[in-house]
Write a structure and sequence with these properties.
With 176 residues, the protein is mostly helical. The chain is built from five helices and no strands.
């Protein structure tokens, strides 16, 4: 039930009781009492609203943590691992093509390979127990996305801060 309605009803009952018992001697006293009761009801409502908002935020956080900690099914894990291997191979192929054409320098290649090694180490560490969770899946997938964008930026001499800096670019990497 709405706390504001409850507070308003309590205020109205209190005012009616005061009028009936003779505690209020004039309309101005009734008005002042009514304003004070309304202010108290508004304060109680705001406190209840803040409490409910905090509880909802806490609930959402717990639900997200539970979702991210949930392990992928065995089939989903095998598909994810295969996809990771394929992505690594595609990134390596794109890196080699960029090096062969002179679009990517040795230091840029080393930077990408370092990111690849870090992503692979994170995956290996998380898979030590044989379980891949939704959260780790998202994290590793994000790492591969970052690596892929970096290779594209190096190959096409784009600024990483503005993915649409190349004319006709949609900002998305076609090859992953």
């Amino acid at each position: 039930m709405n706390p504001l309605l409850i507070a308003g009803a309590a205020s109205a009952l209190s005012l009616a009781k005061d009028i009936f018992t003779g505690k209020l001697s004039s309309p101005s006293a009734a008005k002042a009492n009514s304003q004070q009761s309304a202010q108290e009801a508004a304060t109680k409502f705001n406190q209840a609203l803040e409490t409910q908002t905090a509880l909802n935020a806490q609930k959402a956080k717990v639900e997200l943590e539970a979702k991210l900690a949930k392990p992928l099914s065995a089939e989903a894990q095998s598909v994810a691992i295969a996809a990771y291997k394929t992505r690594q191979e595609h990134i390596t192929d794109r890196l080699q093509k960029g090096m062969a054409t002179g679009q990517i320098t040795a230091s840029e290649s080393d930077s990408v390979r370092s990111l690849q090694a870090t992503a692979q180490a994170d995956l290996d560490k998380s898979m030590a127990d044989g379980v891949l969770t939704v959260g780790v899946f998202r994290q590793v997938n994000g790492s591969f996305d970052q690596i892929s964008r970096k290779v594209a930026a190096y190959r096409f001499n784009q600024d990483m801060a503005s993915p649409q800096s190349a004319p006709g670019s949609s900002g998305f990497s076609a090859s992953v």
